[in-house]
Amino acid sequence: MNILVFQHATSENPGSFCELFHADGAALHIIEFDRGQKPSALERFDFLMVMGGPQNVWQEDEYPWLKDEKAAIREFVLEMQRPYLGICLGHQLLAEAVGGRVEAAKTGEIGVLTNTKTDAGRRDPVVSSLPDPFTALQWHGAEVTALPQDAELLASSPLCPVQAFRYGDRAYGFQGHIEATRDTIRKWAKLPEYEKCDDPAYSPDNINRLSRSVEANLTDINAVARTVYETLIRPAIIKTTWTRRQADGNSR
User: Fold this and answer.
1) Which of 176, 193, 244, 247 is 20 to 30 A off residue 44, Cα-Cα?
2) Where are the alpha helices (DSSP H) in the chain?
3) Catalytic residues
4) What domains are there in the chain, each with its CATH number?
5) Rg (the chain; Cα; Å)
6) Predicted structure pTM score
């Protein structure tokens, strides 16, 4: 099982999913766009997971590699039709890459908050298995404001209408950080974009408060990640791996 991961900061990694990947013997191949790396040979991979980051999808002048990343996402999701999971920035990149729109949020979210399923979410093969509402760490100042065609809204919150969506039948975006671990906040707070920010939300007191909140809710957050893994990632990897091996066998 070959998993491709796009990262935009070393500390914004697959988090609690790493243990699940390891238990299944999946091979992770990490591309760090913020360090100048670029993906190649996308056909080698069975699943694409795209993480969060301090960047915004519209900052292509500041981060030219965003264009390459969006193109890779389009190829993987639209042309190759392979499964995808995007979290926070990865959720927003999926939306924009396949025809949606992302803008600055009217009200950003920072905290451990709950998301409520839509009717479509209650029918969805992945989100239907989550609690309603389900818990996630929120840390974002941008949001999806228009879904692409052929997408279904799966979950919302009072401040962010698009908390989760599915594009087609195998690409998912979650605005909330369902991958959070006990160390997540401490590591993110050290990113220059947040450490030097004068927004009171990033003050040491608020960061410490948020860290305690994550720890207090970690069981629920981790349960969401495990359910997404068991209902989306593991089945998708098995199906894609089998299909690819069948195709390889038929080509010989």
Assistant:
1) 176
2) 17-23, 65-74, 89-97, 119-123, 184-188, 192-195, 204-216, 218-228, 234-251
3) 88, 177, 179
4) 2-180+225-251 (3.40.50.880)
5) 17
6) 0.92
